[in-house]
Design a protein that fits this description.
The protein is an alpha+beta fold. The chain contains 21 helices and 12 strands. The chain has 3 domains: 142 residues, no CATH class; 95 residues, no CATH class; 182 residues, no CATH class. Helix 4 packs parallel to helix 6 and helix 13 packs antiparallel against helix 18.
Length: 557
């Protein structure tokens, strides 16, 4: 076969991004090709492309009085029976209990699976939301992560050849007919370029863009009718969830944007200060300089251990505590100082290499903060380190979670933020339920909402929190918080002072707010993660016992 594979640029890595001197990225040490953003042909007009894509979201989620066409009927025919079946079976048998929520979760998961790629993707996002969604929902929707059938290879090959404009054999000497991963929007195949580099090829499913557009319009029509009717979210209502989903998935449908996300995250991580010896703690695969289109993304192949394979990670002698700390610091640095961060951390998107490096995968969902919101989150972090309640609520307001003209002092009073912290392990189920209801009612009365970026940050932090249980259960939570705060003070103190007018080097760290957020009412200086898990277990048991008690008393009425 002839070999018309385009040659990568011979300019040295770091030769500069368009208008930026010295581009440097957090990549592997052995470069399969040079990364020079200025010469990557697929980047032409990338900023305009991102703006045009973002402008589509309000149109897709605009309120509608009538259902948007035939697809709406198909969706309603799956969702309504699922909710009705739960309402007349599990809800009546055990209202408000985990078995009731399990029944609803199972019925919705089956409906989502039958509705296809868009709803499977929504379910996968929900499955990564531990702490945002009820545990029964998260557990059930995790089944959607590996329940997506692959597209037949002829359909994959047709898309590859259409987008690259030549036969697949002219570009690849090997292309696996079976994918190594099949997700809702795309699937990934192992391949080898004619020039010898081992790569993975992400290929968009045929027709998925049109289906997604119709499905978002349908979701936007259905979501307002679900408000207050089904207990699917603790911190996000259905319309907010649809808005978050729409704003993320429309970017996922153009792989040129994902490839640019890879470059942006790699540049941020190149300056990340959390290190593990002489290696970068977090790395990104290199996107190919030319083989990127709307539906095709060719990237460097990075192999390693699955994030969830804790036994193998420990057997490899990897410092799991260092890995976790690097992840937390990188997330905070990216959001607070660069306004960009990986928005979808979960076990399937992380690979641990033998040298302890963690490779981030799948950059379809990437959080981006404009300057006002970046500064708001930075102020929130700084106010939290000195237990400044007023400053924290102001920052949350400026981040978009509360209306601009809200009375901050009234919010603090109504939420009880000026009261001594409560220890939930000493409260009854009824007391905890009453307290949560009061907080929820107060938040709703102020028009509180969960901004997309805040939801992504919280979701990532909750994932890292859950990872501690497997990778480092004995770490001292309070000591780690103090250590990370000290890192930011030492490495970014001048930048923080310049950005928000508060110099962390001149303020004493106050962990009282951290203790309060964990329900700790004493002045203890240490708290192992295992102890924290035990406290959470007590709280869950209290809630479960209370739900069973209420069911015995009122379930038949």
């Amino acid at each position: 076969m002839t070999d018309p594979e385009p040659q990568s640029s011979s300019r040295p890595e770091g030769s500069g991004e368009a208008g930026k001197p010295g581009f440097t990225g957090a990549f592997t040490d052995d470069a399969p090709w040079t990364v020079d953003p200025a010469t990557m042909t697929w980047r032409a007009g990338i900023d305009d492309l991102r703006r045009r894509t973002s402008r589509r979201v309000p149109q897709l989620i605009a309120p509608r009085r009538l259902p948007p066409g035939r697809r709406a009927l198909a969706v309603v025919s799956r969702i309504v029976p699922a909710v009705a079946g739960w309402y007349f079976v599990e809800r009546r048998r055990a209202p408000g209990t985990p078995p009731s929520r399990e029944g609803l979760s199972r019925r919705l998961r089956i409906a989502f699976q039958e509705l296809g790629p868009t709803y499977i993707k929504l379910g996968q996002i929900i499955s990564a939301g531990e702490g945002i969604f009820p545990p029964e929902v998260v557990r059930e929707f995790r089944l959607l992560r590996d329940r997506v059938p692959a597209e037949p290879f002829p359909a994959v090959a047709r898309i590859v050849e259409e987008d690259l404009g030549r036969p697949i054999g002219d570009v690849f000497s090997f292309f696996a007919t079976h994918p190594i991963a099949a997700a809702s929007i795309a699937q990934v195949h192992a391949a080898t370029l004619r020039t010898g580099e081992e790569v993975v090829v992400k290929v968009q499913r045929p027709g998925v863009a049109t289906l997604v557009r119709h499905d978002i319009e349908t979701m936007s029509w259905i979501a307002p009718h679900l408000v207050g009717r089904i207990p699917i979210a603790a911190l996000a209502n259905p319309p907010a969830l649809v808005e978050l989903f729409a704003s993320t998935i429309v970017e996922e449908l153009d792989f040129r944007l994902e490839a640019q996300n890879m470059l942006d995250i790699a540049e941020v991580l190149a300056g990340a200060g959390a290190s593990m010896g002489n290696v970068r703690p977090l790395i990104v695969p290199r996107p190919h300089p030319e083989l990127v289109t709307r539906r095709i993304l060719v990237m460097e192949r990075i192999d390693g251990l699955a994030w969830d394979d804790t036994d193998a990670i420990r057997a490899a002698g990897i410092d799991t505590e260092a890995v976790l700390k690097a992840g937390v610091i990188a997330l905070i640095e990216g959001a607070m100082f660069h306004g960009v961060f990986h928005g979808d951390l979960h076990g399937g998107n992380l690979v641990v290499r033998a040298n302890g490096q963690v490779a981030l995968l799948d950059f379809g969902i990437t959080g981006r903060l404009d300057e006002p919101h970046r500064l708001a989150y930075l102020r929130l972090m700084m106010a939290a380190t000195v237990n400044d309640i007023h400053g924290q609520v102001e920052a949350v307001r400026d981040a978009g979670a509360l209306p601009a003209g809200v009375d901050v002092d009234a919010v603090i009073a109504d939420l009880g933020l000026d009261r001594p912290p409560l220890d939930p392990t000493t409260m009854t189920s009824e007391e905890m339920t009453s307290e949560l209801r009061a907080i929820g009612k107060a938040l709703l009365s102020y028009g509180a909402r969960m901004p997309k970026e805040l939801m992504l940050i919280i979701k990532n932090l909750l994932f890292l929190d859950a990872s501690i249980a497997a990778l480092a259960p004995e770490i001292d939570i309070l000591a780690e918080v103090a250590d990370i705060a000290t890192y930011f003070t030492q490495h970014h103190g001048a930048r923080i002072a310049r950005d928000v007018g508060r110099d962390p080097r001149e303020a004493a760290l106050d962990l009282q707010g951290v203790r309060a957020s964990l329900g700790i009412v004493d002045e203890r200086e240490s708290l192992s993660y295992r102890e924290l898990l035990e406290r959470r277990a007590v709280i869950r048991r209290r809630f479960a016992e209370g739900a069973r008690r209420r069911h015995r008393l009122f379930g038949r009425h």
